[in-house]
Write a structure and sequence with these properties.
CATH architecture of the largest domain: 3-Layer(bba) Sandwich
Strand order of the largest sheet: 8-17-9-10-13
CATH class of the largest domain: Alpha Beta
Strand content: 15-25%
Largest sheet: 5 strands, parallel
């Protein structure tokens, strides 16, 4: 997890183990959610795949691998990271270069010998680049827009500051550019017992080569944008503003640039220097099962704070759904209470007709 254990909480259920400042493993997260499922007494149907949701005269028909479910209302809580997002020009990468996504990657040993080009510098990209370069691989990291965060600030986990300062509670209708906020990449964080900061400075110290955003492939060559230093400066500026806001909050309640040689603007993918490309370019939702006209041309669900553009349909767990913390485990309760309140009013109105 990128979030410390003390931040893992659900309604009436929170981490109670011996390491509140640590970070849960995948197995521990599964166990945490399983315990909540038992405690909540919800009628959960495990091993049941939803194959389609269609609108009917009085609600919705949900087809599943375990039969049909008819209902007045549906909450879409399938998340925003169902499929890896790979740019179309990935098809132009020479066949001699292996291509993987984070869904495919397991460890450095599974990759063919040679250099690795990791595309994307959010949390997944920087973690993969660090693991690969430590395994002895030559690693190149293609960097676009990214969010830098220190793991700790003034002795506290940076996410403690996010919560205490109220930043995470900012509502979606208070955000200046909501579309942009919902598309921000995940911050460059890693959860380790050492509580280390993993950013581009740390990767440069490990020997990772930085290049700009991968723009296209032409004649077997990867062409990168020349705005790498601008990306660094923008990330540093945003980080400085964030830390200043933490300092302001602390007062009311009581970064250095990467020194890199000029980045390469192109890389010959046919030369053998790069044997593998890992696309850490984010994820997108999968609504192929949703047979209701509520998805925009870019594949995003049309909703206003979780109220989907179809009577009786709602959403939870999407980026900045109602608050900046919407996609975090601890952020679901406040969103869910708002959405369920609206849902209850909708059902009461339907019943009264």
């Amino acid at each position: 997890m990128l979030t410390p254990n003390w931040l893992s909480r659900l309604p009436g259920h929170r981490y109670d183990g011996p390491d509140p400042d640590g970070y849960m493993t995948m197995g521990e997260v599964i166990a945490f959610i399983e315990r909540f499922a038992v405690a909540s007494h919800a009628p959960i149907r495990t091993g049941t795949n939803v194959t389609s949701v269609r609108q009917t005269d009085d609600g919705y028909l949900v087809n599943t691998s375990g039969g049909e479910i008819r209902c007045r209302s549906v909450v879409v809580a399938s998340g925003a990271c169902n499929r890896p997002a790979v740019p179309p020009f990935g098809e132009a990468v020479p066949a001699s270069v292996a291509q993987l996504t984070p869904f495919d990657y397991r460890n450095p040993d599974q990759l063919p010998a040679g250099g690795v080009l990791v595309v994307g510098a959010s949390a997944t990209g920087v973690q993969l680049a660090a693991e690969l370069v430590r395994s002895g691989r030559p690693v190149t990291l293609s960097v676009g827009e990214h969010v830098r965060l220190p793991r700790t600030y003034r002795g506290r986990d940076v996410l403690w500051w996010m919560e205490q300062s109220g930043l995470w509670d900012e509502r979606y209708d208070q955000v200046d550019d909501l579309t942009r906020a919902r598309r921000l990449p995940s911050p460059q964080l890693v959860g380790t017992s050492e509580r280390t900061t993993l950013d581009l400075n740390a990767l440069a110290d490990l020997g990772v080569e930085m290049v700009g955003r991968w723009a296209t492939v032409r004649d077997g060559r990867a062409l990168f944008s020349g705005g790498l230093r601008n990306m660094f400066s923008l990330a540093d500026l945003k980080l400085e503003r964030l830390l200043n806001s933490f300092d302001d909050w602390a007062r009311s309640n009581d970064s250095e640039d990467i020194d890199q040689p000029p980045a390469r603007r192109q890389l010959d993918l046919r030369s053998g220097e790069i044997s593998t490309v890992i696309w850490a370019t984010g994820f997108r939702p999968d609504y192929g099962w949703l047979d209701v006209s509520v998805v925009d041309p870019k594949g995003r669900l049309r909703h206003d704070g979780g109220m989907v553009d179809s009577p009786g349909m709602y959403a939870l767990g999407l980026p900045v759904l109602r608050r900046r913390k919407s996609t975090f485990i601890h952020g679901i309760e406040a969103d869910a209470r708002d959405v369920v309140s609206h849902l209850s009013g909708y059902l009461a109105a339907v019943k009264a007709k």
